Amino acid sequence: MERGKVYIETYGCQMNVNDTEVIFSILAKAGYTRTENMDEADIIMANTCSIRDNAEQRIWGRIDQFYGCKRLREGVVTGIVGCMAERLKDKLLESGRVDFVAGPDSYRSLPEMLARIAPGRPQINVELSREETYADIEPVRIDKNGVSAFISIMRGCNNACSYCVVPYTRGAERSRAPETIIREACGLFGRGYKEVTLLGQNVDSYLWHREGGTDVDFADLLEGVASISPQLRVRFSTSHPKDISDKVIFTMAKYPNICRHIHLPVQSGSDTMLVKMRRRYTREWYLGRVAKIREVMPDCAITTDIIAGFCGETLQDHQDTLSIMREVGYDYAYMFQYSERPGTLAARNYPDDVSPEEKTRRLNEIIALQNELSLESNRRDVGKTFTVLVEGPSRRNPADSCGRASNNKMCVFPSVGPESVKAPAPGDYVDVKVMSCTSATLICERV
Ligand code: SF4
Question: Which of 198, 306, 382, 417 is most enclosed, with most CB atoms within 10 A?
C-alpha cells in the first residue's frame, strides 16, 4: 500500500548522505516512495548536521519553510533527523512546528513513529545504540550517475576530541561485519558502480572480532574490498593520524585500485593546541605519518581539516599551523574557524577567547596559503597522464567531460579527443594528459 511521498534534505558529511539512503530504504519497505519535490511530499524532513553553529542555524530557517508546506497542505508531516535531532532532542518539538525527531541510531523506528503521529502527539526517538550499524539495510542510492557510492563501515566515535560534538550525536564506535560490507560492494559493482568510498568517523579504528577467529582490521577490510575487481576503485574517509597504520599504507600500495588519496585531518600544527584539542598525536608524529605515506606512495595526495582560532590559540600557534601546511604541502584542505559546540569538553573547560575578527583573519590567511599550495600541487601534475573515472559532462562546459584521477583531483577534458570519436559515458575510465590547471581543477586532453 502506497503510504505517501517522502522528501529529505541532507546536510553535512558523507555519512549523512549514506544515512539518507538508509532512511529511504527503510521507508520504501514500509510503503513510502521518494520524491525530490517538496511541494508534493507527504513527509518532509531534514537530515541534519551539528558540527558548527551555522549548520544548525540554517535548519531553523528550513523548519519554517517546512511549516509553510504544512499550512498549505493538510496532513503534511515534518521532521528533523540526524545529529541536530540527537543534540537538541525535544527542544525541536517545543517549536510546535516539527512532528517527529529521530536520532542517527533510530531510523528503523521511523515507520512506527510516522504511523503514531497525530495532531498534538509528536514523536521522538533519540536513543543511541552500541550495536546499530544498519548492516542489513540495502541503501537506496540517491547519486545521479550510478558511478560512485558510499558504504558506511562503522558508526560513532570513541575519540572525544575536545571541540567535537560527534561522540554526543553519533554515540560510541561500532564496526560492521566485513562480510556485509564486501557483499554491499560486490552488489554495487554488479550494478555498474565503479567506485566505493568506505566511510567512518575514524576508519583506522575499524575492527571486527570474529568469534574464535582472527580479528579483521581496516587494512584487512580494504584488501577484501579491493580484491573484488581491479575495475572497482576504493576510497575511504576519514583517517586519524594517531591510528593510521603502516599495514594500511602498505595495503594501499599493493592495490592500484585503492585510490592514491588520504584525508588526514591535522586540525592544528601546534602541539599546545593538539593537546587542548585532545587529538592525541604530536606535530612530529603527524609529520612522521606523512613521511611514511610519501615514502611508500610518492604519488599519494594528502588532504586535511584545519581549525583556526581554537581556545587560547596564540599567534605562534597559528604560525605553527601555517608552517605545517607548507611542510606537508597539502593538495586540498577543509578549513573552518572554531565554533564552540555546547556540551563538548572544550566548551566546558576553555573560554572561546579568540575574537571573531581575529578568527576570520587567521582563517583567511590559512585559506590564502592553501590556495597557493593547491595551485602548486596542480602545477606539479602538468604534463602527467592520469586515468580518470568519468562522472559525466562538465558543469561549466557540457562539451567537456569531468571525473577524478586516483589522487581525487578533478580533471576536465574535451569529451571527444583526437583519436576518440565517442564521448565517454559516466563510469568509463579514460586516460588524460594534464595540459594546464587552476587551484581546483586539472585542465586535460584525452590521450
Ligand atoms: S575523531 Fe575527533 S573530530 Fe573526528 S569525529 Fe571523532 S571526536 Fe570528532
Answer: 306
